[in-house]
């Protein structure tokens, strides 16, 4: 979209750049989502992830347009599952938050990737490295206009300190990062209060913007505002239960009804408890 300022009160908006396709690649591991947006002028990849064959598949899809337009690769945060496929997007223009870049300097995400490959005897496809970041998001609500595509970034530091979401106003698409999953309860890797504030921020974004598609980091996408609002309420309710030191039975019952009947969620809950009572 291009906007031309022609006076105090008027702008002419011309839409040249049309989204051709938005494809979500979902890994079989943890149902982790990678979105690819294909435009005439560029391609945008968000969180290329998991197994080498899956990452190759994403790259093949990106390449099949054969049009040599630039590739932008956005990383919602530096958890290793969200950056693990970056090695096939070395030629892309990397975008991430300032805090994401700082986490990369700690080398923890890289050793997590190495550990994952070693654990499952996966032939490491390349030297493990942190993605190259060319555009750093420094403020929440920062907007970029790249090759005619507008995008707005929001800081959501509850899950991890570097978490961001990105909203595409023309396309009415919101890519959330690790929030509002239908299969995983909130995972508070940074701070309990900031997690609550991040949920409130997401609620504000959802209430104030038209949306056709909302993509969580893991699980099923949402196509209705009402479902996203329901997931926010559910996650806020979980935070209350967590804070009230509820009995394990009550927690399991809540998980079974609201996420998935997966006993592993209790492990995330115990990590959240540790985090909450340490802070
Ligand atoms: Zn994740």
Note the main attributes of this structure.
279 residues; alpha/beta; Metallo-beta-lactamase, Chain A; 6-stranded mixed sheet; 8 helices; 13 strands; binds zinc ion
Structural notes for this entry:
The chain is of the alpha/beta class and 279 residues long. It has one domain (2-278): Metallo-beta-lactamase, Chain A, CATH 3.60.15.10. It is 35% helix and 23% strand. The chain is built from 8 helices and 13 strands. The chain has helices spanning 52-63, 80-83, 98-105, 108-119, 192-208, 225-243, 248-258, 265-278, and strands at 2-5, 11-14, 19-26, 33-39, 43-46, 71-74, 93-97, 135-137, 143-146, 149-155, 164-168, 173-177, 213-216. The strands form 3 sheets. It has a 6-stranded mixed sheet. A 5-stranded mixed sheet has the order 9-10-11-12-13, with no helix packed on it. A hairpin with a 2-residue loop joins strand 9 (143-146) and strand 10. Helix 5 (192-208) runs antiparallel to helix 6 (225-243). The N and C termini lie far apart (44 Å). The model is unreliable at 1-14 (pLDDT under 50).
Short description:
This protein is α/β, with parallel strands linked by helices and 279 residues long. It has eight helices and 13 strands. The site of zinc ion (ZN) has 7 residues, from helix 2.
Report Rg.
19 Å
Q: Count of helical segments?
A: 8
CATH topology: Metallo-beta-lactamase, Chain A
Provide the residue-averaged pLDDT: 93
Q: Helices and strands: which structural class?
A: alpha/beta
> What is the CA–CA distance across the termini?
44 Å
Identify the strand order in the major beta sheet.
Answer: 3-4-5-6-7-8
Poorly predicted segments:
1-14
Number of E strands: 13
CATH domain class name: Alpha Beta
Task: Give the number of domains.
Answer: 1
Bound molecules: zinc ion
Q: Output the CATH homologous superfamily.
A: Ribonuclease Z/Hydroxyacylglutathione hydrolase-like
Give the strand content. 15-25%
**Could you say what the CATH architecture is?**
4-Layer Sandwich
Largest β-sheet summary: 6 strands, mixed
What's the order of the H and E elements? EEEEEHEHEHHEEEEEHEHHH
Broad shape: globular
Q: Helical residue percent?
A: 25-40%
């Amino acid at each position: 979209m291009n906007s031309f300022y022609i006076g105090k009160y008027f702008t002419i908006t011309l839409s040249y750049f049309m989204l051709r396709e938005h494809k979500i690649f979902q890994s079989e591991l943890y149902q982790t989502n990678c979105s690819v947006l294909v435009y005439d002028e560029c391609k945008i990849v968000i969180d290329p992830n998991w197994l080498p064959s899956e990452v190759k598949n994403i790259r093949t899809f990106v390449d099949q347009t054969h049009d040599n337009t630039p590739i932008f690769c956005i990383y919602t945060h530096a958890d290793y599952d969200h950056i693990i496929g970056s090695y096939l997007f070395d030629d892309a223009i990397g975008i991430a938050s300032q805090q994401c870049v700082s986490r990369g300097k700690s080398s923890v995400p890289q050793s997590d990737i190495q550990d994952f490959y070693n654990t499952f005897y996966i032939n490491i496809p390349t030297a493990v490295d942190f993605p190259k970041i060319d555009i750093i998001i420094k403020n929440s609500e920062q907007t970029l206009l790249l090759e005619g595509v507008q995008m707005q970034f929001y800081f959501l530091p509850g899950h991890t300190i570097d978490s961001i979401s990105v909203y595409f106003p023309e396309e009415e698409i919101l890519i959330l990062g690790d929030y509002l999953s239908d299969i995983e309860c909130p995972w508070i890797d940074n701070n309990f209060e900031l997690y609550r504030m991040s949920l409130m921020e997401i609620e504000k974004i959802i209430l104030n913007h038209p949306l056709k598609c909302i993509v969580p980091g893991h699980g099923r996408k949402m196509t209705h505002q009402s479902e996203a609002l329901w997931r926010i309420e559910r996650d806020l309710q979980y935070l209350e239960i967590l804070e009230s030191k509820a009995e394990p039975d009550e927690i399991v019952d809540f998980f079974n009804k609201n996420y998935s009947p997966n006993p592993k969620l209790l492990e995330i809950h115990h990590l959240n408890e540790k985090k909450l009572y340490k802070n």
